[in-house]
Specification:
Layout (H helix, E strand, L loop, with lengths): L1 H42 L1
Length: 44
């Protein structure tokens, strides 16, 4: 029983960390895209 709980907690921590990293990377990419795209549209 304890082994199952520890395995599930490891999976939960892995999935949570993966989505946190994915969200951080996506947010950073969107911010850099907006900050890089808006000046280009304003220059035109």
């Amino acid at each position: 029983m304890f082994e199952v709980i520890s395995a599930n907690s490891i999976i939960v921590w892995f999935v949570w960390g993966f989505f946190m990293a994915l969200g951080w990377a996506l947010g950073t990419w969107v911010m850099t895209w907006i900050l890089g795209y808006v000046p280009l549209s304003r220059r035109r």
